[in-house]
Amino acid sequence: MAEEDAKREIAALEHELQRARQTAEKNHAALSALDEQRREREGRLAVALRAQHDFEQRLEEKRIELARAEAEAALAVVRQALEDRDAAADAFASAVQLVALRLQGFDAAQETAQNAWQALLSSRTVELPALVSELPDEDPHQQPEIVTQALGTLTELVKQRVDQELERDLIEAAARSPLGNDIANLPEHLRELARARFFSLARERRQS
Predict the structure, then answer these.
(1) Cα separation of 134 and 130, whole Å?
(2) What is the pTM of this model?
(3) DSSP-assigned letter for residue 75
(4) What value, to the nearest 5°, has the Cα angle with vertex 116 and ends 112 and 119?
(5) Measuring CA to CA, which residue among 73, 98, 91 is closest to residue 154?
(6) DSSP 3-state assignment of 191?
(7) What is the distance between the terminal CA atoms of the chain, rounded to a whole angstrom?
(8) pLDDT of 138
(9) For the chain, which ranges sit under pLDDT 70?
(10) CA trace torsion 161, 162, 167, 173 (10° rounding)
(11) Is-contact 187 172, C-beta < 8 A?
């Protein structure tokens, strides 16, 4: 009886051992599959990371290239603006010289007209009244109204320019004062411009 019991127990244990082996093999196979999947995933991850790095590098290069192109375009705009400004400055200087020459020419013509008028008045011709009546009804000693108006326009333009230059100098000096303390001493309509210039100078100092 004991022998039969032992055989049954052995048979049961062998059965359980077989089940345990099968379970172990199944789990081992599953782990092997997981290891294979992990290695495959790691390979894919490595490829993806390399691609990510390559794209990041290319993107950074393109951004640098774009920034360089934008800077070059902005620089070209500045250069063209400076060339246009210099050309306008040359044209303005030439115009001023021409105005000065034209004014000298007018003064000379005015003096000639006055001298001619005096010579006519000093002559002893009996036809003087008739000759004078043929002249334009104007005083040769007075400059033409068109010249007076032109000089008034020129004077006003110069005055406005001088005032603008003075205001710019005041704004710049106040903006560069310690902590911008002199801004409060400016006329009210210049204070906001001076504050803007003060902050602009501060940004320039931080960037340099």
Answers:
(1) 7
(2) 0.61
(3) H
(4) 140
(5) 98
(6) helix
(7) 103
(8) 63
(9) 1, 124-138
(10) 130
(11) no
Determine the pLDDT at residue 140.
Answer: 72
Question: Minimal CA–CA distance to 201: which of 184, 183, 186, 188?
Answer: 183
**What pLDDT is recorded for position 137?**
61
Q: Residue 1: what pLDDT?
A: 62
What residues contact 173, with CB distance under 8 A and at least 6 apart? 182
What does the DSSP assignment read for 128-186?
A: HHHHHHTS-SS-TTSPPHHHHHHHHHHHHHHHHHHHHHHHHHHHHHHHTSGGGGGGGGS
6, two tokens: 């032992």
Token pair belonging to 90: 């040359």
On whether the CB atoms of residues 155 and 128 are closer than 8 A, the answer is no
Q: What angle do CA 48, 52, 56 make, to 5 degrees?
A: 175
Residues in the chain: 208
